[in-house]
Amino acid sequence: QVQLVESGGGLVQAGGSLRLSCAASGRTRSSDTMAWFRQGPGKEREFVGGQNWRGGRTNYADSVKGRFTVSRDYAKNTLYLQMDSLRPEDTAVYYCAADPSGQLITSLQALNPNEYDFWGQGTQVTVSS
Q: What is the rounded end-to-end Cα distance, in angstroms, of the chain?
């Protein structure tokens, strides 16, 4: 199994920035598909952005393109989400997820949270006006 631990959430003013981290441990594989999802109050869990660990290909939701950036650090076995120009509508619990199947992050399946087998506990991001 894979264990994921998110960190870096907090309270920030609109227009500000946060950097989330997802530290992975356990039976991790270089072929894993890694992604960030978020779930706001009264909303379904939605795809934010992700990356194929081995190939480095990335994909983002339209709502965050140009503002959020997914990156990785192989040495630390960590996935990052750099969030800039934050808006109140970005307020949500952010989750890191892993799919051992290694599907392309640009595939339709990668956008579906049901495709991911392992999840972190989540970290709260609150953006004030």
A: 40
Taking only the tens place, the pLDDT of each residue in 66-117 is 999 999 998 899 999 999 999 999 999 999 999 988 889 999 999 999 999 9
- H/E element, 98: strand 92-99
Give dist(CA 125, CA 12) in Å, integer: 8
SS3 13: strand
Paired tokens of 111: 């956008």
Report how far residue 64's alpha carbon sits from residue 87's, in angstroms, rounded to the nearest whole number.
10
- For 99, the token pair is 């799919």
- What is d(CA 85, CA 80) in angstroms, rounded to the nearest whole number? 16
Half-sphere exposure of 80 (CA within 13 A, CB side): 11
